[in-house]
Design a protein that fits this description.
The chain is of the alpha+beta class. Helix content is about 50%, strand content about 10%.
Length: about 525
Amino acid sequence: MELLQGSTGAPQLLNLGAGVVALLLTVVAMRSLPSLMDYWRLWRVMKPIPGVSPCYPVLGNAPLFEKEGEGFFKQLQVYVEEFRSWPLFKLWIGPLPVLVLYHPDSVEVILNSSKHIEKSYLYKFLHPWLGTGLLTSTGDKWRSRRKMITPTFHFSILTDFLEVMNEQGGILLEKLEKHVDKEPFDIFLDITLCALDIICETAMGKNVGAQENKDSEYVRAIYRMGDLIQRRQMSPWLWPDPVFRLFKEGREHERSLKILHDFTDTVIAEKAAELEKNKQTKCDTDSNCEESDSKKRKAFLDMLLCATDDEGKKMSYRDIREEVDTFMFEGHDTTAAAMNWVLYLLGHNPEAQKKVHIELDEVFGNSERPVTMDDLKKLRYLECVVKEALRLFPSVPMFARTLREDCFIDGYQVPKGTNVLVITYALHRDPEIFPDPEEFRPERFFPENCKGRHPYAYVPFSAGPRNCIGQRFAQIEEKTLLALILRRFWVDSCHTREELHIAGELILRPNTGIWVKLKRRQNTESE
């Protein structure tokens, strides 16, 4: 009887199983239908735009891409040259359409708009670390946060930060002294650690001593997190969080994230307690009071703890952590890369380096005094050198937005939901605007040579309403540290451009480092 029941029940179970599977597939199909319809709509509207091929269903062009920063960046450069006669082209990263821009007129449509301010979907992978701070937020939150934070970059506050830059620059000089008249060495890490110390102290008021301890847990976590985010962005199969956690990279991401957030949380708690303590005033017998910390140098974090919005509301701990983490992420790698590229280019262009030295001697003579704001205003040729270095090697080689409404770019309809990728590296190499674009010519940025230039042909700090809020801070730091280094040393570069193996990741960096020789500076005439 049991056998009979089993034999007649099996088909029923099979039918039931098939019914469940069919039901599940129906549910999945119904839930996916809006996404599939959006995908089809984007594909149909963007069909006239020239694009990279072959393009596979769902995966798009992703199987063609190199996963490492150097290989992918080279591919992008090849595509740009292939489509240079067009104002733009498209590619698909999985189901995500990406419109690539590298012409000033095309770039202006996006960057000059107050509507197209939302960062690309690919920035989503920064959210676990940075939350929705100034870099990744959009809409009302971004506008409110930008308004609150802008005063913290006031001239007087940046002047206080200059003291930190001189102090940390002095430590860097002592480290570089060990390499004078010695074998070539990689200067990239030394400058990066100095920039990290500067941003830690100016953003958090915390001296992490990165220059003396490059193997600190926090320093390692910052660099590893950047690598993991870049790799995930270029691998659509790692986009779903549950899948990402199954991989080694996902587990490393969680470990690094805990280190970074624990560190920031501890510093914020310490600062908040210190601020509360300092609210108590010291009063003399005549009841004249003064704040106990009135002369104390303030960090970005101190100002965030006191900042309020239009309604007088203060930021939460989580809000503050978002902004501190954002400035830690954005505020050291970018400036460090810029300074390294300047030294590399001057090391290959001795005539330009001599002109920098002449200017430095005119401003500082033989003194070893700290750099002041007045000094920086006088270093006009050095400023042109930095600008030209950022043209050739922009610290952020590309950045992206997501369109929240349809628009037209150079006659092409671009639908809502499209991701727009501005390749700064290619934009700065437009031969019609910068003749012989691969040549290093600081004179391009003399005032008389900038007249009439397209305002969106050169955007190392982005442009428009969503430009980089910290660009003034970056320019001050770059000129200050370069002035300190070049007052004391002559730099010779040891690698050709081809030997650098440039990787266009979150930051434009050479995979092989920047190898240089340092010599003691003599007077300008003997050089």
